[in-house]
Amino acid sequence: MAEFVTVDRAEAGIAVLRFARPPLNLIDVQLALELAAAADRIAEDAEARAVVVYGDERVFSAGDELAELAELSSEQARALAGDLQRALGCLARLPQPTVAAISGYALGAGLELALGADRRIIGDNVKLGLPQIRAGLIPVAGIRRLSLLIGPARAKDLVYTGRFVEHDEATALGLVDEVVAPDDVYTAALRWARQFTGGPARALAAAKRVFEAGTHGHDRARGEWAELFDTEDRSIGTRSYSAAGPGSAEFVGR
């Protein structure tokens, strides 16, 4: 039974992965592993067609639990690094379209987690950053993903300085996709997720795997494209598109 993480069904087809470790939602090892375990369960849930990831109304996550990290030996850190990296990348492995609804702060491990989502929606009072360098550390899971998202030069600036950015700069950098009033973050995330509840789940998952393949995505796309010809949704979609145009298909998710 998870202590800090819950998974709820906000409405038909939308799973809400929520984590609460008051007062700042600092991500320690236990929370990271609970998030990864919950994401693995959602990945196997055929009824979950889109996912919203949410902290709470005040803060998504203010970062790493440095008090815990301060006590680790180098041997313990080496043993933990792979599991922690995998846990913080759990959103990228979800087959469903995934949106992070961000309030207050998304710092350190919190931002690394959010970087794995397909979309990031923030309130206009949010601050984001990867300040681990100020603690003599680096992000264990976020550097490559950040670099692919905003480019190496901009990523280096954020990682090397550990500085925070506010909503306007985050938008200009391409770090976030939508800025709304703080009270509207969760509602805006649900609205984005809702458009996929009747979508072709297998094709969406295939597209996500191609994006996640990065520089190897061009090769990965060939196999993913061909495998979709075994799905019901491909048959439904191609025939309905041909007969009645885009938007006419009623997909079944298989």
UniProtKB/TrEMBL annotation:
Pfam families: ECH_1. The keyword Cytoplasm does not apply. It comes from the Bacteria. Keywords: Lipid metabolism, Lyase. The keyword Ligase does not apply. This is Enoyl-CoA hydratase. Its EC number is 4.2.1.17. GO terms for biological process: fatty acid beta-oxidation. Belongs to the enoyl-CoA hydratase/isomerase family. GO terms for molecular function: enoyl-CoA hydratase activity. Transmembrane segments: none annotated.
